[in-house]
Structures are given as structure tokens and as C-alpha cells.
Amino acid sequence: xxxxxxxxxxxxxxxxxxxxxxxxxxxxxxxxxxxxxxxxxxxxxxxxxxxxxxxxxxxxxxxxxxxxxxxxxxxxxxxxxxxxxxxxxxxxxxxxxxxxxxxxxxxxxxxxxxxxxxxxxxxxxxxxxxxxxxxxxxxxxxxxxxxxxxxxxxxxxxxxxxxxxxxxxxxxxxxxxxxxxxxxxxxxxxxxxxxxxxxxxxxxxxxxxxxxxxxxxxxxxxxxxxxxxxxxxxxxxxxxxxxxxxxxxxxxxxxxxxxxxxxxxxxxxxxxxxxxxxxxxxxxxxxxxxxxxxxxxxxxxxxxxxxxxxxxxxxxxxxxxxxxxxxxxxxxxxxxxxxxxxxxxxxxxxxxxxxxxxxx
Length: 360
Fold this sequence. Notes:
Phosphoribosyl-aminoimidazole Synthetase, Chain A, domain 2; PurM-like_N; cytoplasm; PurM_cligase; phosphoribosylformylglycinamidine cyclo-ligase activity; ATP-binding
């Protein structure tokens, strides 16, 4: 016997799963997914798998696929509390595609996964709208996804999001520690704020310790706390691809959980040390607010938050002017923040933060 009877459908709905709501959510998101379409995408929304024509990759001499997956952590709790759901999609895409670009890969396509206690079509569509708009900015296609209703596991207004993306890079153009040389210059690219990392710390400081509300106006921030905490993650993939086209870049680091030093160290070989001068920039006010309200030590702050730097590139000394010009053309604030030097193999930390931050 095939098919599903009306009785069975009713029983499933009684268990908390609304198939019709899921179908409505798909209809609402189709317009936004369509905006991300690249010529290589085959088929449409609703299939069991997203299809991407790989034949155009033959233009590359030795194409290597890169893949990355991530979520947005406890920032979703802020979106849920404020009932604002489109910006969380930007966060998801930024966290995924910017991990791809640091190896030199162009993001090609992405899929998403949304788990929720109850499918509210308009809410799901808002999340996907944000994902789609961010994919357009990143230049990658949103080829599919999954929305799962988990009654009893998640509350009706709770959800979590995750995503995965695939990119491509020439084999001989892959960036990494093997390319970094003494004398390379570190170029910092500004973050838009906390991005999507350190929200467990921020929530503990503001809500548990200080008892602040999301609608609290914070003069130092020029907006409410909730508005600040929902500022979307900056997406760097397009900026970095332009940078790679215009300048000799040896390595890049996406500054996420763990802070600037820990993430930059991942692309620095044992024979190199990068000295970063804090005095070359003033972090946005949110970082000082977290520190002051929570009485967080400087080492703890820097080991958790990006401190105003979302991406770092290590470039050849004679490529600095071209690199800064390329980023300026993209409207991305960037500056020289340090330099690489030779050290005895394995001698101490690979990244050292020095000096004090410039005044705001």
C-alpha cells in the first residue's frame, strides 16, 4: 500500500509535525532561493539533492574542492528573543564561506539546515531570506536545504541553523602556512562587531551578571543592546577574492571563536612569528562594553572575541599597496597591523599581540 491516509496525516499533526506548514514555508522561500542561482545550478527547489554542474570547473588546470560547515551558536537565542530572524542567515553564510576563502577557494554553492520546535512559515522564510541575501553577496548559490520540525525536543519558538558550502581553488594556488615568509605584512580587515562568536560570554555578562534587557539603550553603542547583538557577521569572501586577484597573498585567517591570535596562529608555520600591534586600531565600542560590564580580563577577552578584526591576510611586502587599494575599492576598512619574522623552529608563540589599542 502506498500513500498516506488522512487519518495518518492527522496523527502526525497531533504529534506536533505540520506538513502543510512546511510546504507553505517552501513556497515562501522560493523567491529568495531563486535570487542566489548561478548558471551551474541544475533543477529547482524541492528535489532530494541540489545539483551543480561541475563541467565549468574544467577551466581550471587542477581544481581542488574545499568544503566547510558551521552554525551561529547561541546568537540564535538573541534572534528568537527579539523576534528578528533574517539577520541570522547572514551570520550563517559568513561563518561558512569565509572559512572557505582563507584557503583561496571561491564559494560555489551552499545548503542549509533549520531545526525548529514548530514550523512557522513566515519565520522559516525570514531565515532563508537572510541566507539567500548573504549568498548573493558571497557569490554562491543556495542549492537546497532542510527544515525539520522537532516537537518535544525544541520549544515551539526555538530553532537552530547550520550550513555547509563547497568551493573550488587551483591546486597550486592554495593558501597556507607553507607560503608564509619572514617579512610578510599582516593586513587586518575590520569586523562588523561580535560577528557570531563569544555570545555565551556576552549573554552571561549582559543578562546573568548585569541583568540588562535587550531593549536597554546603551549610549556607548548608539543603539539598544539587542540591536547591537544582532548586527550581522561581515562577509569577506568577495573582498578576499578581489584581494587575491590584485596582490600576492600568502595566507589568510578568518577570526572566529578563539580570537585573533589563536586563529592567525593556524596559518603560521613554526619557524615564523607574527607580531601584531594593537595600537594600529581601536576596537568598536561593544568590546569595551563587554569588558567593563563583565569585568573581563584582557587575555580572556582576546581569547574569546575578534576585537574588531574579522579577517587577516599575510601578504608579500611589495604587495601591500595593491592589497590595501583592492580592499579600499571594495569599501572594506583595512590596515597594516603587524609583520612576520623568522624565529628558531618552535620557539615560543607564533602570534604575539603587543602594545595597547588606539583610543576610540
